[in-house]
Amino acid sequence: MAAEGKRGLIIGAAPWKDGSFLAPYLKEGQWTVFCADGGYANGRSAGLMPDFLIGDWDSGQRPELDVPCVTLPVEKDMTDLQAAMDQALSMGISRLLLCGCTGGRLDHTASNLLLLEWLADRGGDGMIVDEDNEVRLLLPGSFLVEDEPHYHYLSLVPLDRTVSGVTLKGMKYSLERADLIRGDTLSISNEPRQRVMEITITEGRALLIRSQREENI
Fold first, then answer.
1. Is 64 in contact with 78 (CB distance < 8 Å)?
2. Count of CB atoms within 10 A of residue 71's CB?
3. Residue 33, phi-psi category: left (phi > 0), alpha (psi -120 to 50), beta (remainder)
4. Which of 22, 89, 118, 181 is surrounded by the most beta carbons within 10 Å?
């Protein structure tokens, strides 16, 4: 994530074990914690108290806490998670770490991944993490990616039909000004070979996904 801007932790309702995977990301600086509906239970299991509650409470009863709270209608035009992100942006918090938003319903997972684009279009910078994965959005430009915390695999998933001028350095499989086609798997299951890797994209958007598990598909 970028170094600028206030930081917000958005916790969704997708179940997890204990939230210990968040420790490497939260060890520095201060974070404003937003719990989206059932995300409150996830936050408490990780020892995190919310600074802001938001949701329609269809995942459980509204917590009785002395913190700011927004109750949403059950029938609405955005998910509780997106509403929490929108609330954070309205408070001037533009750097968002999203968790508790993958697994379970596939439609929610897919739409939550694409919320990284929605956030970028509004001037924000986001990352999604769970027990096995880290996901961020890459726009045209050059990026340095530190292998910290360490993940075994690193993949680029094109969001546009063609992502052009892709150069990968510091990885097991390098590329030089290659074109990635959405639906192809050329850029899946790369591996880090240096502590700091470099990715350059000339045109198009892609998801950078770092993963721990070693299953093959």
1. no
2. 10
3. beta
4. 22
* pLDDT tens-place string over residues 62-84: 778 888 888 888 878 889 999 99
Instruction: Specify the DSSP element, H or E, that contains 210.
Output: strand 206-211
Please name the amino acid found at residue 26.
L
Mean pLDDT calculated for residue range 170-192: 96
Say how many residues make up the chain. 217
Nearest alpha carbon to residue 113 among 87, 133, 91, 94: 133
Scored b (16 or more CB within 10 A) or e, 23-57 reads eebbeeeebbbbbbbbbbbbbeebebebbbbbbbb
For the CA atoms of 174, 180, 185, 191, what is the dihedral angle to 10 degrees?
30
Radius of gyration of the chain (CA): 18
